[in-house]
Amino acid sequence: LKLALALDTLAASWHRDGPRSLLTLGLRPTSWGTRSPSEATELIAQLADDAPTALLRLQGGWIVLFVDESRNRCLLATDRAATRAPCFAALPDRIAFGLTALDVMRCDKRLEGVRPQAIFDYLHSHFIPAPDTVFAGVERLLPGEYVEAIDGRVSRSRYWEPRYGAASAPFDFARDKATFRRVLEDSVRAEAGAGATGAFLSGGTDSS
After folding, report:
1. Contact 118, 132 (CB under 8 A)
2. Contact 62, 81 (CB under 8 A)
3. How many Cα neighbours within 13 Å face the side chain of 162?
4. What average pLDDT does the chain have?
5. How many angstroms separate the CA atoms of 133 and 140, rounded?
6. Nearest-5° angle of CA 66, CA 89, CA 117?
7. Which of 15, 67, 126, 160 could disulfide-pair with 144, CB 3.0 to 4.6 Å?
8. Can you tell me the distance from the alpha carbon of 138 to that of 104, in angstroms, rounded to the nearest whole number?
9. CA gyration radius for the chain?
10. pLDDT digit string (tens) for 32-91?
11. Does residue 207 surpass a pLDDT of 70?
12. Percentage of residues of the chain with pLDDT beyond 90
């Protein structure tokens, strides 16, 4: 297994248990415990036995790369919002992973071809809808999704699906306002940690 990573602002953690390896990017200690060796070993065992259930346990924004050399198996997953949606390419002799489509393209010259439809999508809509990317053969993971390669067979699956439905209780502005503010503050506090953090406010709650 050969890894070449540019982590930049992503917090990374690497664990190994025999033939199994686990690389986590962006996971905070509170996402799945204290990241002690015993807890990492437990998560590795769960990913080996039941990956969808193990991934459901993780919180926040993250990327997980799991490798089991004894089964010739690797798995790449992203969180339920695809906060940082990694990319991959399945080639006849390898599978390449990266944090961006450009990272994956740089892994193999066979991936340098640009998709004409992607150029049209960008000029027309100002973005390229996932799972496609600008490069032919390079795909992006969707929210709550993982890609798995076992003995050269590559498959995409979902471990989580969003559910939409009517509210369980009538809308109450004062109550729901207080709940929204609490959830927002707790989320920012958890992501910011102890560091100094700033944000550009453009006027809307969603974009802020």
Report:
1. yes
2. no
3. 8
4. 85
5. 7
6. 140
7. 160
8. 7
9. 19
10. 655 566 788 888 999 999 999 999 988 888 899 999 999 999 999 999 999 889 999 999
11. no
12. 52
Tell me which residue has tokens 């993780």: 58
Q: How far apart are CA 91 and CA 139, in angstroms?
A: 12
Please give the Cα distance from 180 to 37 (Å, whole number). 36
At position 98, the amino acid (one-letter code) is G
* Residues 53, 45 contacting (CB under 8 angstroms): no
Alpha-carbon distance values, 142 to 26, 76, 168, 177 (Å): 17, 12, 28, 30
138: exposed, middle or buried (C-beta count within 10 Å: 0-12, 13-18, 19+)? buried
State both tokens at 64.
């997980």
**Under a CB-based contact definition with an 8 Å cutoff, are residues 140 and 131 in contact?**
yes
In this prediction, residues 8-23 reach a mean pLDDT of: 82
